[in-house]
Amino acid sequence: MRFSLSRAALGSASALALFGGAVLGSLPASAATITSTDCAAQAGTSAVRAVSISQGDTIQLNQTGADGHFEGQGTVEVFCRKRGTGENLGDISDSQVRITVTPESGITTPFTISVMGSVPTSGNNPALIGPFTGSFDFVITAPSTLLDPGVVSADVATHIEVVTQAWGAGLTDGSATLRPGTFGDVVASTPELDSLPLFATGALGLLGYASLRRRARNK
């Protein structure tokens, strides 16, 4: 579902800004690399079924640069997950992940995915990333035309991450091909959105001042 916030809505949205916040997925604690044999022995299930990926979070694209483009960062970790508890038993080597950014309805601006560091990458949306061990950071960018004129914030896309390889091989269990995955929202905002909390704080300050004046007159 797409949402947007216009300049005209800044006043009414300012109070909500004091209480609102992005809901972020938590990454499992980083662990040492684990082999497929040890993963199966410790996880309580087959190694390929223990392959897991860090929970997707909301990626914030902020407007920046001289050209006014939008960019935001995400992190992916592939690890062996203990059955029942979800404990991170160790990072998986030679992993491969496919990342796709799917625009919301009405969004025609292209999104580009790039990886920070020297991790091998093929394509820019979707992007096939790896092999890598443990985790990597990636960046989503979009041109300055992403938001319509007058809109300061909007839910513009969904990012989806799917594990396609672990320990240098595909994830097959008998005749089944496994695709552990996760997803999250992509939200874009202009610098004007940063003024919301300050505006709300100022408005509350004025209300407090007015209350003091009323009490003083009633004494």
Brief overview:
With 219 residues, the chain is α+β, with helices and mostly antiparallel strands.
Question: Topology, please?
Answer:
Elements: E1 4-6, H1 10-19, H2 36-43, H3 47-50, E2 51-53, E3 59-64, E4 69-81, E5 88-91, E6 95-103, E7 112-115, E8 121-122, E9 127-132, E10 135-142, E11 151-165, E12 172-173, E13 176-177, E14 181-189, H4 195-218
Parallel strand pairs: 3-14
Antiparallel strand pairs: 1-11, 2-4, 3-4, 4-5, 4-10, 6-9, 6-11, 7-10, 8-9, 11-14, 12-13
Helix pairs in contact: 1-4
Features:
219 residues; alpha+beta; Immunoglobulin-like; twelve-stranded mixed β-sheet; two-stranded antiparallel ribbon; 4 helices; 14 strands; 39% strand; elongated
- Largest pleated sheet: 12 strands, mixed
Secondary structure: number of strands: 14
Q: Could you tell me the radius of gyration in angstroms?
A: 22 Å
Strand content is 35-45%
CATH topology: Immunoglobulin-like
Unreliable stretches: 7-29
Distance between the termini: 53 Å
Structural class computed from helices and strand pairing? alpha+beta
Helix proportion: 10-25%
Q: Count of helices? A: 4
What CATH architecture would you give? Answer: Sandwich
